[in-house]
Amino acid sequence: MHLLRMASVFSLCAAAWSVQAESLPVEVLSAVVKDQKIADADVLLQRNGEQNVVGKTNAQGQVTLQSSFPDDAGSLLIIKKSGYSNLVVKCPCKDMTYAISPVMQNLDGLRVVLTWGKTPADLDSHMIFPGNNIYFEQKQGADANLDVDDVDGYGPETITLQKKHYGESYVYAVHDFTNSENPGSRQLSNSQAKVFVYMGQSLVRTYYVPTNRSGNLWTVFRMTGNGDFQDINTFSGVNVHPANVLNEVSPLLDDKVAIAEVAVSSTAQADARALNVKGEAAYKAGDLEQSIALFRQAIDLNNSFGQAYSNLGLAYQKAGNTAEAIWANRKAVALASGNSANTVRASSYYNIARIYENAGQFSDALRHYELAKEQKANPVYDTAIERVKNR
């Protein structure tokens, strides 16, 4: 009798779980080879207070997770595979296609991956910089190329910069080709589009398309001549040929054109500070992976948090993630302010220079040692300048 009761209880629990559980099919592709399925990728669904749901993609790059918690922005999907950068993205994730990026070797390389939902069918990536508009009609440019073009929904669309040219600004935008003659369309805003930016071994920035907006052009970010990443995240309605998207965003290639700062609530600022403190504790404890994750979370909440960027640069550098360390240090330079601004900028330039010197990129190293010296006199900088000049 006791065993029958126990069996009945287990049956009821299983039935309740099966009612609540939801199938979450996901597809994983290569970001750089069109339609290449990624097998044996580890896929993890995570939510605070819940047990992780894990799976592995099959030969077709597909996996179906059985989740008992909501498929919304409170859940994170994490995709890992050796030789590729980890992908971390907010849900909704059901029936979505994700593309993972092979690790990049170039210190000044950059990869931008666009994915979206079923509609609209054709979203186009545009990377615009002096003399170049990289998109589906001009797939190659100066140290840049469109790796993958997609015209039937989901993506990916991928643009890779082999080397960012110092002193030149870059603007990345997404154009809704399907609705190119409908400036008031909301399909782009409702597309669940996401833009993933990779450097070195890591995903360094993620952008989610603003919702409830009219327009067919999403201008996402700018990299200044000094390499500072600036979020733009604006919508506009245009009625132009794709080649003329260049004209719509090219004024932003002038770094003197100000980008409106994104307002950060006091709550978000406080949460970011708390995460930064936790990151510092993890760093001191030698847990570099956790410290990097915490500093990244702080920056996601407050992208103007200079101290978090400075800390992130140190953690990346100690972990051997040198391309990412350069990116974080450049942002620390851009955000430096107050009485310590010159010291912060000098230190950050020096850190960048050391990375370049260790990589044998001596002209880049010399430039940044000299930039450090411009900010603050230090015999260490003088010694470094002479050392690199004699290479």
Structural notes for this entry:
InterPro entries: TPR-like_helical_dom_sf, TPR_rpt. It holds the Pfam family TPR_11. It comes from Pseudomonas vanderleydeniana. The chain has a six-stranded antiparallel beta sheet with strand order 11-12-13-8-15-16. Strands 10-9-14-17-18 form a five-stranded antiparallel beta sheet. Strand 2 and strand 3 (53-56) form a beta hairpin. The longest helix is centred in the first third of the chain and has 19 residues, at 2-20. By secondary structure, it is an alpha+beta fold. It folds into three domains: 18-98, Immunoglobulin-like (Sandwich), CATH 2.60.40; 104-253, Lipoxygenase-1 (Sandwich), CATH 2.60.60.30; 266-389, Serine Threonine Protein Phosphatase 5, Tetratricopeptide repeat, CATH 1.25.40. Helix content is 33%, strand content 26%.
Give a brief rundown of this model:
Pfam families: TPR_10, TPR_11. One of its GO terms (molecular function) is Hsp90 protein binding. The chain has 9 helices and 18 strands.
Label this structure with key terms.
391 residues, alpha+beta, Immunoglobulin-like, Lipoxygenase-1, Serine Threonine Protein Phosphatase 5, Tetratricopeptide repeat, six-stranded antiparallel beta sheet, five-stranded antiparallel beta sheet, disordered N terminus, TPR-like_helical_dom_sf, TPR repeat
